[in-house]
What we know:
By secondary structure, this protein is of the alpha/beta class. The protein has two domains: 2-181 and 369-389, Glycogen Phosphorylase B (Rossmann fold), CATH 3.40.50; 191-365, 3-Layer(aba) Sandwich (Rossmann fold). The chain has 16 helices and 13 strands. The strands form two sheets. It has a seven-stranded parallel β-sheet, with helices on both faces. Strand 12, helix 13 and strand 13 form a beta-alpha-beta unit. Helix 1 packs across helix 16 (370-389). The model has no long low-confidence stretch (mean pLDDT 93).
Amino acid sequence: MKIGVDIRVLMDKKYSGVSEYTANLLKAILKESESDNQFVFYYNSGKNISKRMNEWKRDNVEIVASSYPNKFFNYFLQKIFSYPKIENIIGEVDIFWSPHFNFSSFSEKYKTKRVLTVHDLSFIRYPKYFNWRQNLWHRLLNVKKIISNSDRVVAVSENTKNDIVDLIKKDKEDVEVIYSGNNLLKKEIKKVEVEKFRNKYFANSNFPYILYLGTIEPRKNISNLIKAYNLFRERNENTNIKLVLAGMFGWKTKKIFKEYKKSKYREDIIFLNYVEKEDKDVLYSQAKLFVYPSFYEGFGFPPLEAMTYGIPTICSNVSSLPEIVSGSALMINPFNVEEIAIAIENVLKDKDYYNYLSEKSLKRAQDFSWDISAKKYLQLFKDLKNEERK
Length: 390
């Protein structure tokens, strides 16, 4: 079986979200793949980034690149002229897998079977959480058409599948749920690693902290988290616990920083920005509590990552999150600031409940594996190829 893979999502130097998903899944797919499977990894870049492709070199992997400037390639060639056809760049393949939405034109001559992974449809469900450039990008992509033209769609959760069927009207028989793996594997954290981490991010300060990790954007509900933290601190004057907000700054952050600046506890609210991959294990392991009050998630990696280290977790009771944490976290209404504050207090002050959530977290995190995800993808590719022969 010959499988084409669109790896344009791996062009970012720093992986997060979809790029991290794709990289971890591809490593597992290559490990699980049968010897007769051949892969063609395709990317486009106006710059020479061939050295970054070294990690993907295998005997059964061919890496093919086009060197058009990205905006010219996407908006002009692919969008307007539907040129060049993917098969004319990478050759004939049985399956072409796109791990995310992208401009791609295919030739009817080859009848390539297309598989698309959909992580979420938040931009359709809640366009208000995105800026005008992002909403324009999604309109230009014509996501509904991409999904409709795909032979199979992989949804990363039942919630995402329901959105695909509801919003796109894709036949539910053509949508398969394959859960993501866990980006972290629990490891022993040495004292020297903790000291290095604290010196790097906290000027070697030693304090307990409540952690949020994710993009700093409206959909993640950071404003309500700050409000809830304020309430918690007002009711617990003797605590010195900080609130650490880790993650890249996204869009529409004005309201978030307005809430931060007016907080009388702002000196105890710490924005870390992007945390390097090698530091994430220490970041999670040293947290006292993880809070993730997002309004909408297609899957929800951060709660799962926190649970890997047995960190008691509080997360929203909406979208995919109840499905992913499955009773192993304390669920809250993300629109109710009072409820979030009470949840923080209840977990931190009740030692027995704290330990209960910690144990549940550890067990739930073990249910997710990239090896399991890879096997399901390979089976999907095989089944789809066999359909072609009928």
